[in-house]
Amino acid sequence: MKKTMTIEQLNKRYQQSKLAAYAVIALAIVMITMLIWPYNIITWEDEYFPVLNKKVIAGDPVVYEVAYCKNSDLSAKLSKSLVNDNIYLYSAVDSNAECGCHVVNATLETPSYAEPGLYHVKIVYEYSPNLLRKITYTKESEVFEIVKNEDR
Hints:
It contains one helix and eleven strands. The chain is of the alpha+beta class. Strands 2, 3, 5, 6, 7, 9, 10 and 11 form an eight-stranded mixed sheet that branches.
């Protein structure tokens, strides 16, 4: 036997499906906004971070200056590497720099076994402003020279 629906039941089902469609559309708008919203988390004053000690003995720290303006209180995962023909990777760390404009001196310990030559520091900042999006900035220092202890 065929089951029939009354006009009230049909109207109720129609209202429910309309509400579900609106919810799906609203969720899609929120997700698209989360994916394409133009975040301006941090900006830097210099294209390359100035190195304060242009000649570094292998095993000593290289010191570079970071001038930045941070516009959000988000923390970053910071990955550093020392680059020339070889790449020396360092462990990633969490960093939450203060909001506002600041100039700080950052250091990176050079490996004592690093070959003499010209190097630069590469820093990758990775921010997650929401569950759907990661924003990555890559910055580099100026070139500096690593020398062995007897070359200084």
